[in-house]
Amino acid sequence: MTEEEMAKKAVEALDIVPGGDTRRRPVHTNGVGVEGHFVASEAARDYCVAEHFQGGKIKVTARFSNGSGKTALHDGWSDVRGLAVRFHLEQDKQEERAVDLLAMTLTEFFTPTYETFLKFASYTNPEAPVTRQSAWRKLLELLELIQPALPAPYPGQTTSSVAGALRYADEHARSELSIFHAAAIGAPKSYARAAYHAVHTFFAVAPDGTRRAVRFNWVPVSGVLNTGPEDPVVDDYLKSDLQLRIKGKLGIGTDPEPVRFILMMTIGETGDDFDDPSRSWPPHRTRIVMGTLTIDAVASDQDADGERLSFNPWRLVEGLEPSNDPILSLRRNAYEFSRKRRGGVAGCPFSGV
Questions:
Q1: What residues have CB less than 8 Å from 94, skipping those under 6 apart?
Q2: What is the pLDDT of residues 76-107, one digit of tens each?
Q3: Which domains are seen in the chain, by residue range?
Q4: Dihedrals φ, ψ of 85, to 5°?
Q5: What is the three-class DSSP state of 323?
Q6: What is the pLDDT of residues 55-66, one digit of tens each?
Q7: pTM for this entry
Q8: What is the rounded (10 degree) CA torsion for 87, 90, 94, 100?
Q9: Left, alpha or beta for 35 (phi > 0: left; psi -120 to 50: alpha)?
Q10: Which residues contact 137 (CB under 8 A, 6 or more apart)?
């Protein structure tokens, strides 16, 4: 089977979602396109020669999203959230060049390989009914060490893929951490108050030629904050929250609420798994502040600057190189297949591959 055929099969494995639409993204279907800028830190250029780490203001187009593949919008449900960022670089021969960085609120991916991903997708039926477990059932499962107790459903949440995912975790110990995390992830108070992790390893090339294995994550300046299962929420509050923050109509005072994120780069060491996105690195690894992302506006044209825009983790430039991670490799062609199927904009060509 060719890489293109594998990618097609992987995308189609996600089409089992009732309420999905093949004319849209198979997951992270609902999102909000935004505009902003990125400014690298002074330290960034010492660790990576990529253009967006050399200083100056870099234009950014980004998309916040909910992880579900449903077209129905449920901002208030427990779900993984995503942040895809495109750094727009200077034009070269009338052709725009860019770097994409894709991240999510999980610190690791569910599976390490293409084969395990297909099996995981078959387990996670998002239409399984979800109910509140009794306190006695939670205690029993805790004492018997069966699995973590199912989280209480959020207001209005009637279905969930958690039960199927936990069954998969029972059979695949390496996926337990990410699945348990996803099961209890909750709903963010704001897209601006969630932390996002690019779970794959890349290699950053320094000015002296040193090549380091690294992972990136976005840390919200406003801090991380979730809603509670008992908090009343509306289905579409996340977009309006961003608009209010940027316009200065949220919080104390009249100044705009900064929607900012710090880009952190973690440097891997010998013994860390560079090719398995389902394995976290130890928390004491060296971390470098690479710069600050500021969201300036919610895009006025959500179709052009959100839904039709196509991000890809293989859109790289000199100074950043992909690892041999099988899931990262799969995503390159899977995202292209999805883009073509839904008529997304190709953007700039891949480079550094």
A1: none
A2: 888 999 999 999 997 654 567 899 999 999 99
A3: 3-111+189-342 (2.40.180.10)
A4: -125, 130
A5: coil
A6: 999 999 999 999
A7: 0.86
A8: -20
A9: beta
A10: 149
